[in-house]
Amino acid sequence: MKKKILIAVFVLASLCILMGSSSYSGATNNPSEATPYSLPSFGRLASNFAESTGIFSLISPETGEWVDGIGRVIMVVVGLVLLYLAISKQFEPLLLVPIGFGAIMTNVPIVNMSDPGGVLYYIYAVGIKTGIFPLMIFMGVGAMTDFGPMLANPKTAILGAAAQFGIFSTLIGALILTDLVPGIQFNILEASSIAIIGGADGPTAIFLSSQLSPHLIGPIAVAAYSYMALVPIIQPPIVKLLTNTEERKIRMQQLRYVGKIEKIIFPISVFLLSLLLLPSAAPLIGFFMFGNLMKECGVVNRLSDTTQNALINIVTILLGLGVGAQLSAGQFLNISTLGILMLGVVAFSIGTASGVIMAKLMNLFPGSKVNPLIGSAGVSAVPMAARVSQKMGMQADPRNMLLMHAMGPNVAGVIGSAVAAGILLTLKGIVVG
Amino acid sequence: MITEGLKLALLGMSVVFIFLLILIGVVSVSTNILKPIVEKEKESKKK
Hints:
The complex is a heterodimer of chains A (about 425) and B (about 45). Chain A has helices at about 1-30, 40-50, 55-60, 70-85, 95-105, 120-130, 130-145, 150, 155-160, 165-180, 190-195, 200-210, 215-230, 230-240, 245-250, 260-275, 280-295, 300-325, 330, 335-360, 385-395, 405-430. In chain A, α7 packs antiparallel against α12 (about 200-210). Chain A is mostly helical. With about 45 residues, chain B is an all-alpha fold. The mean pLDDT of chain B is about 95.
């Protein structure tokens, strides 16, 4: 009985809706009473729909510009290549998956997701243009970093400093390209943003370019993360070229025990040092050291856990999509991008070579010897560069464990690249202001 | 432009080295000052 009543109510309600809709459509049949909701003829409707498809827009873009047609197709392919590298080759998948997908989304025709009003635009404007996302990532990285190896053997920090030569030599390289190659025009701010790729530190590269030349964020981020993923391919030939087998066999002294109090004082001292010497680097170093202090102090484990897991994961997704949003055809498909990709690999190579050469120079002085392989770890890229040193060390001597020794210059390189970014950031005031 | 780059590179590398050398100094000094506390911590961990 109850079921029958329910069916009756449902049928009545459906009839009411149908009647209502038919009276409404009846009203629209009369052209004189047409409302803004009236539809054109079926033919016109079908034609409008055809024009609103992606295929039509890609073949015949509204603007008539090639970048809005075939350019978008090329960028979708670039996005797919990034996804392939991330999923199949596992090259920096945490970032290349969101960047690759963001690149495809931003090149969807008609909806223009990265234009003002689009969702990707707001992700970019809120988190990347302001520099918030890279700093949040830096905080998470800080919470995951152990400075113990560097504190146990502080002189390895010099290797982290030497590797920053890659940044500054690339800066000069970018300016030389501007002079020599027609079509490439980098001003000093753009050259500085490109040069930071040599720091092998994604968040620093994104932060600096968001401050100095936001229009280059896309290619710079792609170059930085791609080359970071390619560290195991780029570094070994350079290191082998600069070292002999005997040098690669050098065994380093076992690292001493580092106390908890030392690990707590360290982030505070580094931040105070940046506050006194280089306030422009304070945002990067500050967030990095804040994350590390949360980890080491041991009284805010919940915050530390959130920072190194949930928070960094959320921000990574948004940062990746925001960077992907900058990979629109108009911004990416030009000769400058080729220049950036080329300069990026040069920056990495020079940074690697500088670290190795510095380690060899250090061995000229009396005292405990340094295996030059750990010099290449000075180019941040934590912990990939340190793993490369370890692997190469084991190839020369299977019982030579270099990983912890290489972590010293590796984390010093992160501080070094943040300092270099701080120096380049001071240009903003000088050149623009 | 290239001269500007050279100036910036010289300044930049100097500051990076100075910053990290001072940091090494600070770490070395704090290591020496904190040595007794760290030794005690190490001993208590061994026990």
